[in-house]
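Give me structure tokens for this 322-residue protein.
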Amino acid sequence: MAENVYDFPPKSDLQGFFKRFGKLMIGLLLLVLLIIIAFNSIYTIKEQEQAVVTTFGAAKAVNTAGLHFKFPFVQNVQKVDTTIRGFAIGYDTKTNATIEEEALMITKDYNFVNVDFFVEYKVSDPVKALYASVEPVTILKNIAQSSIRMTVGGYDVDSVITTGKSEIQAAIKELILEKLLKQDIGIQLVNITIQDAQPPTDEVVAAFKSVETAKQAADTAINNANKYQNEQLPQADAKVDKVLKEAETTKAKRVNEANGEVARFNEVYAEYIKYPLITKQRMFYEAMEDVLPSLKVIIDDSDSGVQKILPLDTFTEGVETK
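Here you go.
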């Protein structure tokens, strides 16, 4: 009988080899499973981020940044970005092209106007943002569009394009906040701003620009007039005050002089009542003392021996001296 060319190991050795190989594979599978479990047991939350941990259908928010532990295959983690985000209404943010169906609106005075808005929002409640609705951002956009049209429809076109933008923005924001509070979808409105507002045709745009220019010119003229008024009023008030003070001074002076004359007259009259003749003579002498020193006279007694007192100035008026 020929010899067996192939030298197989004994059957017992093969069984031992397979047992050892099987144990090795089981160990490797357990190691891989442990690694998978370890990686599924931890998760990290970044700044400006929150996590929603779901355990058997019950959701809980985790808002502390850092490394966290969860039960693998039992708890599910969904991360939610809580930074401020935004979207446009009325135009495309990439091309800046107007979206007519969003931007075109009608005002209180039945004019058409294109108004563009930018809405800023953030997640306030991650659990509600994930589970309270299917598309919370879409709901917010629909609320914003309805609030915008309702508010813009209450203003005339001039206010929408020029003077009433701030008031309109505030009214729209208040209306959106009120509606979001009722919806309670975990989204918070941060701000809404009017990016642009203009009539839909070039001719109307030019007309409104002319109106705006005229208004600015009118405001400038009014400001200049107010400035001139503010400059002139203090000067006029000062002049009026000066005139009033001078009038008061003159009034007091005249009153004092009049009171002095009245007192002097009363004194003279009292003396006159007592001594009429003496008082008359004294008054005559006093009057002559005031008049005679400045009176130029000529005494003429050539005709009848009666002396005549002639005022010299009467005959010399208009005569030029040589």
